[in-house]
Amino acid sequence: MSARSGTGSIDDHDFPLPTFPDGCLCLGRPGDLVSTADDLSRFQQALFSGALLPPRATEKLFALPPDTVRMLDGSPARYSMGLQTATVNGVAFWGETGENYGYRARLFATRDLTTRFVLSYTPTPLNAAEEMTNRVVTVLTAA
Questions:
Q1: pTM to 2 decimals?
Q2: What is the count of structural domains for the chain?
Q3: What pLDDT digit, counting tens, does each position of 83-121 carry?
Q4: How far apart are CA 26 and CA 31, in angstroms?
């Protein structure tokens, strides 16, 4: 399989886009979050506080579909219109994930932002399970 290539442009400055042997022209895939931990933290604060979207759109970020909508494994839906939710030790977190070729980002918080975390890291090995996220959430929700 041959790699695609291309260029991007920001403010009339062209730059090469990274390409990989699987043919992916890597500018990001839907849902990817590729940034610094500080930028992701600022984004999370603005998104959850309603600074980025009008109130109606912000409410939809935290509204799950009806109980009749199920995940492929039969469990209740965990995705809203833009975020996903996970309950750990009785604490409901909302957030988003992203990853791309040796980079992984996770940002989750309680709805009121009293408990939150942002991870930006390189998993080792590259196909590693969610051990890092699980460790952080376990510590944050420990009684």
A1: 0.68
A2: 1
A3: 999 888 899 999 988 877 777 888 999 999 999 999 888
A4: 13
Is the residue at 120 inside a domain?
yes
In a domain, 136, yes or no: yes
Domain presence at residue 15 = no
12 found inside a domain? no
Domain span holding position 94: 31-66+75-141
- What residue type is 43 in one-letter code? F
Q: List, in sequence order, the alpha helices (H) in the chain.
A: 37-49, 55-61, 131-141
C-alpha to C-alpha distance for 82 and 74, rounded to whole angstroms: 21
Lowest mean per-residue pLDDT among 20-29, 44-53, 101-110, 131-140: 20-29
Q: Among residues 139, 37, 40, 43, which one has the least CA distance to residue 91?
A: 139
- Cβ-Cβ contacts under 8 Å for 34 (sequence gap 6 or more): 28, 98, 100, 103, 105
pLDDT digits (tens, 9 = 90+) for 111-130: 999 999 998 887 776 566 66
